[in-house]
Design a protein that fits this description.
The protein is an alpha+beta fold and 295 residues long. The protein contains ten helices and eleven strands. The strands form two sheets. Strands 1, 2, 3, 4, 5, 6 and 11 form a seven-stranded mixed beta sheet that branches. A four-stranded antiparallel beta sheet has the order 8-9-7-10. The structure holds L-homoserine. Keywords: Amino-acid biosynthesis, ATP-binding, Cytoplasm, Kinase, Nucleotide-binding, Threonine biosynthesis, Transferase.
Length: 295
């Protein structure tokens, strides 16, 4: 049996729409075994225990790209990442499924090959790249390839993930975005995305608040999430480094200094008064990315 553990991810990081992302120490784990025939899926809701399951689709897509087959497969899910929550649960299935195909056929894993297949399933790279590689990543899709870098950051940050009791599909969250942006908004975001990547890696905390501002997506998507703008305002007034929508949402990510120990409790008190229920997780960067163990 093969065990594949894939980290949650937070994409966009404010201005880095569809290009910046990072991996977090919250995981989905998948156990995969070849069986005589058919498909057995355990550990997930019944509605996902079928051939349309994203992990299975990714596994089959990769097997086909590798010119391989299996007689049958059993997949057991051990999931901790909320579905449609903005923490990369889909990317864990895509990366997990593709890696499972390589591993079950003992094919040497090449990150470029894995990502090339993964991007045919999840077409923006900012979750799948950090899910595979860990740390913070910048990535670009050009034709059939993904070009990427991952880089480490100093151990001064923590990520307070605020997840409301609602789901928001990426499809819906993308449908509210404008088709075109102005040159000035393009400059606004690209300049900040570059400054953000450099400042995160160097620990230049004073740049990060400005660098996390965005004009591509948050103003549109924030309206879909009750309390979004007020929560960002509250976190700002209580000493966050910066706050932003995690991926397509609805999770809100508060980037905090590890030394600012009171912020989580203040957020908890603030959200207790909210009409919605919120799950609060304090997370750190995962530096390993996806791991495979034969058990
Ligand atoms: N960059 C993507 C988006 C991430 O914001 O739509 C969600 O998968």
């Amino acid at each position: 049996m093969i065990k594949i553990k894939v980290p949650a991810t937070s994409a966009n990081l404010g201005p880095g729409f569809d290009c910046l992302g990072l991996a977090l120490n919250l995981y989905n784990t998948f156990y995969v075994d070849e069986i005589d025939h058919g498909l057995v899926i355990e550990g997930c809701d019944k509605e996902y225990a079928n051939e349309k399951n994203l992990f299975y689709v990714s596994f089959k897509t990769a097997l086909s790209a590798l010119h391989q087959t299996v007689s049958g497969v059993k997949i057991i899910f051990d999931s901790n990442i909320p579905l449609k929550g903005g923490l990369g649960s889909s990317a864990t299935c895509v990366i997990g499924g593709v890696l499972a195909a390589f591993a079950i056929r003992h094919i040497k894993i090449d990150n470029n090959d894995v990502l090339k297949i993964a991007k045919t399933i999840e077409t923006h790279p900012d979750n799948i790249v950090p899910a595979l590689l860990g740390s913070v990543t910048a990535s670009v899709i050009e034709n059939d390839d993904i070009f990427y870098e991952n880089f480490s950051v100093p151990d001064i940050y923590e990520f307070i993930a605020l997840s409301p009791d609602m789901e928001l599909s990426t499809e819906i969250a993308r449908s509210v975005l404008p088709e075109e942006i102005s040159l000035s908004d393009g400059v606004f975001n690209t300049s900040r995305a570059v400054l953000l990547a450099l400042s995160l890696s160097k620990g230049s905390i004073n740049n990060i608040k400005i660098a996390c501002k965005d004009r591509f997506h948050q103003n549109y998507r924030g309206k879909l999430i009750p309390g979004f703008f007020d929560i960002l305002d509250f976190a700002d007034k209580n000493g966050d480094i910066a706050s932003f929508l995690s991926g397509a949402g609805p999770t809100i990510m508060i980037l905090n200094k590890k030394t600012n120990t009171s912020l989580k409790d203040k957020l908890q008190c603030y959200l207790n008064d909210s009409k919605m229920k919120w799950k609060i997780r304090t997370l750190n960067i995962d530096t390993k990315g996806a791991t495979i163990t034969v058990i």
